[in-house]
Amino acid sequence: MPLKRLALLLVPVTAVLVAMACYSDPVYPGNQVVGSFRFEAKLDPGRTTCDAGSPDFAQIDDAGTFRFEGTFSRDTDAGTGFFTVQGFTRDAGFEGQLAMSTHRASAPRASCGTGCEDSQIEEALNVLLLSDSQTRGIEGDCARLDGGTPTGTPPGPKEGGYDATLACGTLRDVFLPGSGPKCNCQPSTCTTVYTVRGERTY
Length: 202
Prior knowledge:
The protein is mostly beta strands. Helices cover 5% and strands 45% of the residues. The chain has an eight-stranded antiparallel beta barrel. A two-stranded antiparallel sheet has the order 1-3. A two-stranded antiparallel sheet has the order 9-10. Strand 6 (88-95) and strand 7 (98-106) form a beta hairpin. The chain is globular and about 55 Å long. The two termini are 34 Å apart.
């Protein structure tokens, strides 16, 4: 029996804001592709306050996880960064090995009542990017990080690409109530938190 996914039916990562046609040779913004990753996000019940029984939410698999793919890139000249999910690009930032992307989007909720159109979701993806040597050092197990940075050469440009093979961190969705007179969101706000592990695919 599938578990409830504590994420709205329309969210930036889990259900994709923009659908796009298939293409064979993706082009990402900026002048440096940091890496494309296949992420697995697993619900962290201890840090989640949303109600799994709400009709606002969709389904995940039996393990309480969902999967998505995304690509980090950046413009090294301008100092800007990007995170692209199935053709939708949002801003990202980099601090050392930490990659961060926060995005806010409209997210209608049935529980807010008819006529309430301005409820939103704010989603924050924060991951530590690990090089090949660092990934081998923890045997590919994000749980072995224990809040620290493993020994080894940190990620960086290399011949033919960028040395970042694993991403470990969290995905946090905060559901924000609508402010209009027809809005009666219950609860007014709630949060879902997932632990995230991403393996490099490109």
